[in-house]
Amino acid sequence: MQISSFRRTLPTAASCGLALLSLGLGACAASDEQVREDVLIEAVVPAATISHDVFFTFREPTDASIDGLIAACEKLRILPGVMHLTAGRRDPAQTRDVNEQTFHVALHVEFEDQAAYDAYSPHPVHQALVKEFIPLTSAVVVYDALIGDM
């Protein structure tokens, strides 16, 4: 995340009260003689994050293999830098011409930055998923994209 900062001088509550009482004003009017406090205002500017979408197709899909893969995907949630993760079955009700029908499980992960994405693949939790489920698949398709501010 990028943080941009700027300083703004604001009158203190005491100086506002004095100005209101002495001048009978409805707003705070501070002069150079009044005590001021320096307030640091930080604006958080989100950097681009990485969207990682994976579509798994089993050679011989079973409810047990699909449920097992989804459960294994959910374990990836604990990895450092994972901002959002969801996994689930293909929705058989979505049958428009543009809907891909060949996959069985979809995984969507958003990483906070490139470093988090780079640490994901070699992580032991990810490697356990690969070792157990990739031999059962006939296809794994990955789409990675930058999302957010760039």
Protein model, in words:
The structure is a single chain. With 150 residues, this protein is α+β, with helices and mostly antiparallel strands. It folds into 2 domains: 2-45, no CATH class; 49-147, Alpha-Beta Plaits (2-Layer Sandwich), CATH 3.30.70.100. It is built from 4 helices and 6 strands. The strands form 2 sheets. Strands 4-5-3-6 form a 4-stranded antiparallel β-sheet. α2 (63-75) packs antiparallel against α4 (124-133). It holds the Pfam family Dabb. This is Stress responsive A/B Barrel Domain protein.
Major sheet:
4 strands, antiparallel
Q: Characterize the quaternary organization of these chains.
A: single chain
- Tell me how many strands there are: 6
- How many domains, as an integer? 2
Please tell me the CATH architecture of the largest domain by its name: 2-Layer Sandwich
Shape field = globular
Beta-strand percentage?
35-45%
- The sequence of SSEs as H and E is EHEEHEEHHE
The computed structural class is alpha+beta
- The total count of helices amounts to 4
Radius of gyration: 27 Å
Q: Overall pLDDT, averaged?
A: 82
Low-pLDDT windows of residues:
1-23
Within the CATH hierarchy, at the fold level, what is the topology of the largest domain?
Alpha-Beta Plaits
Instruction: Return the CATH class of the largest domain.
Output: Alpha Beta
